[in-house]
C-alpha cells in the first residue's frame, strides 16, 4: 500500500486511479510531464533547493510541482522532514523508472528538431562575468562568420548536467571530472592586477597598505582561487589592507575598477578588451597562473552536428589571445 496524502485515498492494486476519478465524478488527465521532470531532478539532486538551482526555479516552485504530481498520483513521493526532504519508497521507485523515459523523450525531441532544421540552433552556457566581459564583445565576429547559426546563450552558475538543461556547449572553470561530457582545455587562468590609468599613476609600489583593494567572491565558487592574500604572498609583497568593497561577480568588480574605485585582480579573458582599449592598465608585476583552467565542454551526442562543431572551433579561435599574458609595462606607478 502506498503512503497516502492527507485527504486523498491511497492508490492500491485493487483501487486504480481511473476508478477513483470515476468515483469522484471526474476524469483522468494525462500525466503532468513538467511535474515529472521537476520531481526526477529533485530526486536525483537530493532536495527542492538543489533542484531549483539546476532548473533555475525557486524551491517553492519545485515543491509546488512535486505537490501537484503527488496529488495526481494519490501518494507521497517525498517525506517532509524538519530539515529537508527524503524520498519515500514509491518516490524512489518512480524516479528510477522515469529517468530513462525522460532521457528517451529528450533524445527523440532533439532528433526531431534536427530533422526540422533546428540543427542550426546551438545553446551555450558560461558564468555571467565571462559572458559579459569576454563573449559579448566577440559575438559580432561570430555572426559575421556564421550568419546561419542561431546561438542561444545562458549565463549561469556552473552545472554539469547539460543534458537535463538541454544545453549543447559549456565553458567552465575547474579541473573536472566531467565523465558524461566531452571536454578539453580552452585557456589558462592568467591573473593580473589592474587599475584605471589615473589611479595607477597615484599608487606607490612600496606602500601596498595604501592601495584601495576591490574584492571578488568568484562566481565559480571554487576553493583556493587567486585572491588578494594569495596574490600578495606569491608576489612576495606585504599584504595590503583588508578593507575594501566586495562584489559577487567579477564583472561588477571590474566595473568598479573602471570607475576608479580601486585595484582589482582578475583572469585575462575578463580583462583583454579593457587592456587593449586602455580603460584599465596592469600593475608592473608578473602575471600569475591560477590553479584552474577554462575548459570547453559539450554533450557527446551532439558532437556530430556541424553547427556545434563550428561554435567550438570559433571558441577555440577566440581563446588563442588568452593563452599567454601580455607584456607588462614598467614605470606606470608613482
TrEMBL record:
This is LysR family transcriptional regulator. Belongs to the LysR transcriptional regulatory family. One of its GO terms (biological process) is DNA-templated transcription. InterPro entries: LysR-type_TF_proteobact-type (IPR058163), LysR_HTH_N (IPR000847), LysR_subst-bd (IPR005119), WH-like_DNA-bd_sf (IPR036388), WH_DNA-bd_sf (IPR036390). The keyword Transmembrane does not apply. Signal peptide: none annotated. One of its GO terms (molecular function) is DNA-binding transcription factor activity. Residues 31-88 form the HTH lysR-type domain. Keywords: DNA-binding, Transcription, Transcription regulation. It comes from the Bacteria.
Amino acid at each position: 500500500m502506498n503512503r497516502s496524502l492527507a485527504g486523498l485515498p491511497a492508490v492500491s492494486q485493487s483501487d486504480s486511479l481511473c476508478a477513483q476519478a470515476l468515483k469522484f465524478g471526474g476524469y483522468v488527465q494525462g500525466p503532468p510531464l513538467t511535474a515529472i521532470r521537476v520531481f526526477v531532478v529533485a530526486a536525483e539532486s537530493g532536495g527542492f533547493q538543489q533542484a531549483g538551482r539546476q532548473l533555475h526555479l525557486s524551491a517553492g516552485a519545485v515543491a509546488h510541482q512535486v505537490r501537484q504530481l503527488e496529488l495526481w498520483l494519490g501518494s507521497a513521493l517525498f517525506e517532509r522532514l524538519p530539515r529537508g526532504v527524503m524520498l519515500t519508497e514509491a518516490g524512489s521507485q518512480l524516479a528510477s523508472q522515469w529517468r530513462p523515459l525522460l532521457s528517451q523523450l529528450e533524445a527523440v525531441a532533439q532528433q526531431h528538431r534536427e530533422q526540422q532544421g533546428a540543427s542550426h540552433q546551438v545553446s551555450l552556457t558560461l558564468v555571467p562575468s565571462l559572458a559579459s566581459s569576454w563573449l559579448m564583445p566577440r559575438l559580432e565576429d561570430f555572426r559575421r562568420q556564421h550568419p546561419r547559426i542561431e546561438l542561444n546563450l545562458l549565463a549561469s552558475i556552473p552545472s554539469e548536467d547539460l543534458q537535463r538543461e538541454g544545453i549543447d556547449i559549456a565553458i567552465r572553470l575547474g579541473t573536472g571530472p566531467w565523465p558524461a561530457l566531452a571536454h578539453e582545455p580552452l585557456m589558462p587562468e592568467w591573473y593580473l592586477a589592474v587599475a584605471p590609468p589615473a589611479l595607477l599613476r597615484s599608487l606607490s609600489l612600496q606602500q601596498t597598505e595604501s592601495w584601495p583593494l576591490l574584492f571578488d567572491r568568484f562566481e565559480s565558487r571554487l576553493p583556493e582561487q587567486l585572491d588578494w592574500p594569495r596574490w600578495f604572498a606569491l608576489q612576495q609583497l606585504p599584504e595590503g589592507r583588508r578593507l575594501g568593497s566586495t562584489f559577487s561577480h567579477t564583472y561588477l568588480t571590474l566595473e568598479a575598477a573602471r570607475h576608479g574605485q580601486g585595484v582589482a585582480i582578475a583572469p585575462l579573458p575578463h580583462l583583454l578588451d579593457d587592456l587593449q582599449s586602455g580603460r584599465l592598465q596592469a600593475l608592473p608585476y608578473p602575471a600569475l597562473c591560477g590553479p584552474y583552467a577554462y575548459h570547453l565542454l559539450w554533450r557527446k551526442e551532439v558532437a556530430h552536428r556541424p553547427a556545434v562543431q563550428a561554435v567550438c572551433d570559433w571558441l577555440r579561435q577566440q581563446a588563442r589571445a588568452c593563452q599567454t599574458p601580455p607584456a607588462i609595462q614598467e614605470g606606470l606607478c608613482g
